[in-house]
DNA sequence: AGCTCATGGCGAG
DNA sequence: TCGCCCTGAGCTG
C-alpha cells in the first residue's frame, strides 16, 4: 500500500539484492508464468522506480513492470525461500536471497520501447533527480480541477499518494479544494520543493514523516501518537481529532472516491 | 467466520 | 461516478 517513496525504497532493496546476479524466477500462483519462463536464468541489470511504477531490467533487454496498486506487497528473505503460501504472483531468487510479490495491479514483461512509453505516460516524480517540475506546473496552472485532486493525479505528480497529498497541502496552508489555476507559481514551487524533501526523506526511512520537530506532539505537550502507516503526520487519518497547530477539528471528505483530510482553519483557501 | 478498510487505478456508462 | 480488480490486517461476533 505504497506511495512513491516506498517504491523507490523497494527498488533500491531489489537492486542491492539482485543486480548483476543471475536469478531464478517463478510464479507459484501461475499468473506470471509466461514472464517467469521468459526471464528465469537471466541477469538483473537495473532496478528503477518512476513514481509508483517499478522496473526490473534484464540482460535480454526485457523489463518486468510492476505496479503494486493498493494491495501489492513485497516480502524479502535470505536463504532458501519458504513453501509458497497464498497468492504468490512472482518470486525472484538467488542462492542467497529471495523476494516474493503478492497482489500487484500490474506485473508484466515489457520491451525497451514499451518501458519508455509507460514512463512517458506519467508526470515528473519529485524523488527523481531528472524530474522536470515545469511539466507539472503547466498542468496545474491550466486546470480547473482542485489541487487536492491534481496532487493525486499520476500524470501530474508521479508518486504522490493520499498521505503526501494531505500533508503537503497542510504544510502550505492550501485548501485541497482550491482550483489548480489559482495556485501561484510561488506556491507551486514551494509545494514541489517540499515534495522533493519529504519524499526523499521518506525513501530513506521507508516511512512518511511530515511533522516539523517543533510541532511534534511531545514538543507541543501532547500524547505521542503512532499511526498504522508508521509515520508522524499532521492531518492524514486524523479526522475528528484536534489540529496540532490550531485545535480545530481535522475534517474528512470524499474526493473522487478517496479519503481527503484537512484542517479547515489552517487551510481556509 | 465474516465484515470493513487500506498509502491505487482502470474502464464502463 | 461507480464498480471492479488484487490481498491482508484489524476489527466484530
In a nutshell, what does this entry contain?
By secondary structure, the chain is α+β, with helices and mostly antiparallel strands. It is built from seven helices and ten strands. It has two domains: 4-120, MutM-like, N-terminal (N-terminal domain of MutM-like DNA repair proteins, Alpha-Beta Barrel); 133-262, Helicase, Ruva Protein, domain 3, CATH 1.10.8.50.
Describe this structure in words.
By secondary structure, the protein is of the alpha+beta class. It folds into two domains: 4-120, MutM-like, N-terminal (N-terminal domain of MutM-like DNA repair proteins, Alpha-Beta Barrel), CATH 3.20.190; 133-262, Helicase, Ruva Protein, domain 3, CATH 1.10.8.50. It has helices at 4-18, 33-39, 112-120, 133-142, 147-150, 162-171, 185-205, and strands at residues 24-26, 44-50, 53-58, 63-67, 73-78, 88-93, 97-102, 106-110, 251-255, 258-262. The model has no long low-confidence stretch (mean pLDDT 94). The chain binds a DNA duplex (13 and 13 nucleotides) through residues 1-3, 5-6, 52, 67-73, 86-87, 89, 102-106, 152, 154, 161-164, 208, 228-229, 236, 256-259.
N/C terminus separation: 30 Å
The helix/strand order is HEHEEEEEEEHHHHHEE
**What's the pLDDT, averaged over the residues?**
94
User: How many helical stretches?
Assistant: 7
Low-confidence stretches: none
Using only C-alpha atoms, the radius of gyration works out to 20 Å
Number of domains: 2
> Structural class of the helix and strand makeup?
alpha+beta
Amino acid at each position: 500500500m505504497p506511495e512513491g517513496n516506498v517504491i523507490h525504497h523497494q527498488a533500491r532493496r531489489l537492486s542491492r539484492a539482485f543486480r548483476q546476479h543471475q536469478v531464478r524466477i517463478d510464479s507459484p500462483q501461475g499468473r506470471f508464468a509466461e514472464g517467469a519462463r521468459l526471464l528465469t536464468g537471466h541477469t538483473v541489470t537495473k532496478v528503477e522506480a518512476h513514481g509508483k511504477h517499478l522496473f526490473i531490467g534484464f540482460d535480454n533487454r526485457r523489463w518486468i513492470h510492476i505496479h503494486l496498486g493498493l494491495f501489492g506487497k513485497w516480502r524479502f528473505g535470505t536463504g532458501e525461500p519458504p513453501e509458497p503460501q497464498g497468492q504468490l504472483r512472482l518470486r525472484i531468487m538467488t542462492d542467497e536471497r529471495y523476494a516474493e510479490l503478492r497482489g500487484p495491479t500490474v506485473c508484466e514483461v515489457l520491451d525497451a520501447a514499451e518501458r519508455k512509453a509507460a514512463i512517458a505516460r506519467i508526470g515528473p516524480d519529485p524523488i527523481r533527480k531528472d524530474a522536470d517540475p515545469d511539466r507539472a506546473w503547466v498542468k496545474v496552472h491550466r486546470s480547473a480541477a482542485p489541487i487536492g485532486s491534481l496532487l493525486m493525479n499520476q500524470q501530474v505528480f508521479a508518486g504522490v499518494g493520499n498521505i503526501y497529498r494531505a500533508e503537503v497541502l497542510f504544510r502550505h496552508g492550501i485548501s485541497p479544494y482550491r482550483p489548480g489555476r489559482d495556485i501561484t507559481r510561488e506556491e507551486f514551487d514551494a509545494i514541489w520543493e517540499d515534495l522533493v524533501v519529504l519524499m526523499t526523506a521518506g525513501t530513506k526511512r521507508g516511512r512518511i514523516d511530515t511533522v516539523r520537530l517543533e510541532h511534534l506532539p511531545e514538543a507541543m505537550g501532547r500524547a505521542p501518537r503512532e499511526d498504522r502507516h508508521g509515520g508522524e503526520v499532521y492531518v492524514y487519518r486524523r479526522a475528528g481529532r484536534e489540529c496540532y497547530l490550531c485545535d480545530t477539528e481535522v475534517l474528512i471528505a470524499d474526493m473522487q472516491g478517496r479519503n481527503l483530510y484537512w484542517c479547515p482553519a489552517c487551510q481556509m483557501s
